[in-house]
Design a protein that fits this description.
about 130 residues; about 85% helix
């Protein structure tokens, strides 16, 4: 609620009201394309998380670090997407980011929640 009141960011409530467009437009396409590229489910989930972090107005990040945290994480994630690292390099990128986020007490929890919902939608409609 504070993110909405202070910054006009609707968070998960707005996402749910709109029918989870981020899952359809970002999560599922990222998951499916990465699975097709590397056929590695764990890597595809990591890639999907980065893809979500690049686009989601994550209210968990805003709550913990303000708009600066959100902007920094989105820029980082967009950079990773632009580089399109292979599976091992992606693990290293995320490991470095984890240290960076942890030092600042940032948590992209909204993106993680949408990752879980993306996986659910993928499994529910495609199966394993």
């Amino acid at each position: 609620e504070r993110a909405w009141a202070e910054h006009g960011i609707g968070g998960i409530r707005a996402e749910a009201r709109a029918g989870y467009p981020t899952i359809r437009r970002v999560g599922l396409p990222a998951l499916r394309s990465r699975l097709g590229r590397f056929d590695d489910p764990a890597d595809a989930l990591r890639w999907t998380l980065v893809s979500l972090m690049a686009t989601v107005s994550d209210t968990c990040l805003v709550a913990r670090g303000g708009l600066d945290a959100l902007t920094s994480v989105q820029r980082w994630a967009a950079g990773v997407r632009g580089r399109s690292p292979g599976p091992l390099a992606l693990v290293n990128e995320l490991r470095d980011a984890d240290a960076w986020f942890t030092a600042r007490r940032w948590s992209p929890g909204g993106s993680a929640d949408l990752l879980a919902a993306t996986l659910f939608a993928h499994e529910a409609f495609v199966g394993d």
